[in-house]
Amino acid sequence: MHNSPSNRLADTYLAALRNHFGQDPQASLLAARAIGQEVVANGLETLDLARIHERALAQLLAQDGTSAEHRDLSARAAAFFTEAITPIEETHQAAHKTNADLQQLHATLDERMHKLADANSELQHQVAERTETEDGLRRSQRASSQLLKETRTLERHLQLMAHQIITATEAERHRMSLLLNDEITQTLLGINIRIQTLKKDLAANHAALAREIAATQRLVEDSAQILSRLIHEFSNQHER
User: Quick one: DSSP state of residue 64?
Assistant: First the structure.
């Protein structure tokens, strides 16, 4: 037990405090700081040094002296002890600062992780929206292409019927005009309605597809006008 770090420090502290009483206090305070550093190096705390200080002071005050001398020694011993615990307190302050820095670092990391998670969620949402938009565009393109094919087929059929009407008898012309009115007009109307629906579904940046649909719609409208004119002419001929 005599060779334990605490016992060795107690002997060193007693000798240093005795020297502090007998010499310039400012010079002996360096020894007090050195003892405090040794306390830190041995893993001891302020309470351990306080016990060593109390035993050393009690031993020194047990010697003969007046009450005033004892008060003076106690005051000087307090200054010595304050200097001795300075390295310990500095270590505690450094530990507190390090702990505060770590807490701040953890808080910053948590905040960044939350922001990263939010950014990742937003990215996934944007990817999903873009995928949905692209799928919708492909569907619109296919529908537009089909409408264009149907419109051109209808136009060719209209031309064929117009030729047949020209070469037909009056009764056949009347029957064909009714057929044009009841069937082809409804078909053109249906195609035009589907084109209008497609136009509403288009995004603003799909200009090329919008132009294609507009051209198809103009073709339908022109065909409808031609058909209307033919029906009117054939109806007039039939009445005559």
Answer: S
pTM: 0.40
More confident residue, 136 or 88: 88
> Tokens 């010499």 sit at which residue?
23
Model confidence band, residue 22 (pLDDT cutoffs 50, 70, 90): confident
Distance of CA 12 to the CA centre of its chain: 60
Helix intervals (H) in the chain: 5-22, 25-41, 46-61, 67-84, 86-167, 170-179, 185-201, 207-239
Give backbone dihedrals phi and psi of 206, rounded to 5 degrees, phi first: -100, 60
Domain that holds residue 186: 132-239
| 223 in a structural domain | yes
Asked whether residue 116 is assigned to any structural domain, the reply reads no
Same domain (yes/no): 61, 137? no
Nearest C-alpha neighbor of 144 from the set 186, 197, 185: 197
Mean pLDDT of 18-24: 80
**Residue 22 forms part of a structural domain:** yes
Q: pLDDT tens digits for 146-184?
A: 877 777 777 777 677 666 666 767 777 677 667 766 766
CB atoms within 10 A of CB 234: 23
**Total structural domains within the chain:** 2
Q: What pLDDT digit, counting tens, does each position of 202-236 carry?
A: 655 566 677 777 777 787 787 777 777 776 766 66
Are residue 74 and residue 146 in the same domain, yes or no?
no
